Amino acid sequence: MADNYTCLSVSILTIGLLTAFYLPSANAALAVMSLVVVLVCVSHVLGKLRRRDGQTERRVCVLVLGDIGRSPRMQYHALSLSKHGYSVVFVGFLDSKPHQGILQDERIRIVPIAEVKGVQVGLKILTYMTKVILQSLQLLHVLLKMELQSHILMQNPPGLPSIAVACLVCGLRGTRVIIDWHNYGYTIMALSHGAGHPVVRLAKWYEHFFGPLATHNLCVTKAMKDDLQRNWGIKATTLYDRPASVFRETPVRLQHELFMRLARTHPQFLPSGNDPCEDEVERTAFSGFNLADKAVTLTPGRPALLLSSTSWTEDEDFSILLKALEEYEGFIKAGTSLPSLVCVITGKGPQKKYYRKLIDSLHFEYVKICTPWLEAEDYPVLLGSADLGVCLHKSSSGLDLPMKVVDMFGCCLPVCAVHFSCLHELVKHEENGLIFKDPQELAEQLRVLLSEFPNADSRLAMFRRNLQANRGLCWDDNWDQNVLPLLTSST
User: Fold this and answer.
1) Which one is predicted more confidently, 126 or 270?
2) Which of 94, 312, 418, 483 could form a disulfide with 351 if both were Cys (CB 3.0 to 4.6 A apart)?
3) DSSP string covering 239-264, please?
4) Which residues contact 425 (CB under 8 A, 6 or more apart)?
5) Partners of 111 in the beta sheet?
6) Is the pTM of this model over 0.70?
7) CB 287 within 8 A of CB 365
8) Average of pLDDT values for 319-337?
């Protein structure tokens, strides 16, 4: 490729010199020579940018304009690429710790970028515009500086400005772009600004204009695939989220070890009486470790462990769960035989402080709530230890599925999930969980599912057995079938 651009430069220079020699005007000759110099320089730069070597087709850039540690699907992409012998440059924010497998993989190199704030004075639109411009320049610098990659595999949303920058780099370097559509960015923006806001309309135009320029497209549901084809003219491959191998049911011994760690900072995990060691048994609210015979058992009469994970954003209304827990507390006080609850809500996000204040204002007797941030290695262990999951993700577009439920199902954890249009592609009502529409319906589902807890013949236990029997394709097999052919195709 470099030789081709050298020949092109020589040809441009020769033609320019001959043309300038025969021009009668000195000014015209100077103009031609100036244009020739520019074209030669451009040809030379393009030659360097597009210079390929024997390993170019085995290099892929995975791009996330967000926190790598909170982008599980993109981490799975990177690990799958590495497994097939690709060298991966993983570009994104490094706000939280990625999975240990990413950090230990010699084929994966993380290139951290900083989140740009933009000008913090004046109109908000000025702040937003300067943020986009500065972020674009940073991405351009990073993508043009690295070795030539065969593909850029990027996440959307967020896609502003990363889609446009990736497409520009594709044009300059001959790289192919794959967009993994997790949702639409403009629908998420509409949650806080309203669908008619000028910035939202601009974001919608942006995705509609630049999205079709990608070489290939992936998406997370059949509903999104149909919408992309019908309304955007984009042909996409559906790659359903699948749980990584770390998401599985947790052995009782590992459960106890995690509960002991959490009890150091979260009293909700301490046994009643706050005495973690009595009768030579090391206890938590859920488990006991016999110091004499080293046996670990779950405690009879233990609370039910309810788990929900969130990014604390506008597409998850946690007041639904809090109201349902109030009703659950009321059931017990009214005499219904139900276990006490420990509700764990994990995650980071902009609305956490707001909901934390609401939680602190509640005064429950039978329900305890905590909001820990878990390391990547502890999160699947907690999922595999829980009794019931709750998902409050309500898709802004109605076309994506909650990754948190995928992970819960990997741990064979039944779920109660709030209804939206394509949720049935993942949650099968009355088979692997229940779907609700309001706090009252969720409260009633909690009452029914936990009324026989922890009876092995209960409805909750039946959902768990159904999940154990219908695990489906793992992530690796799913990725090999749907993504690997895109990387090896010539277009």
Assistant:
1) 270
2) 312
3) ------TT-SPPPHHHHHHHHHHHHT
4) 221, 222, 223, 240, 401
5) 91
6) yes
7) no
8) 96
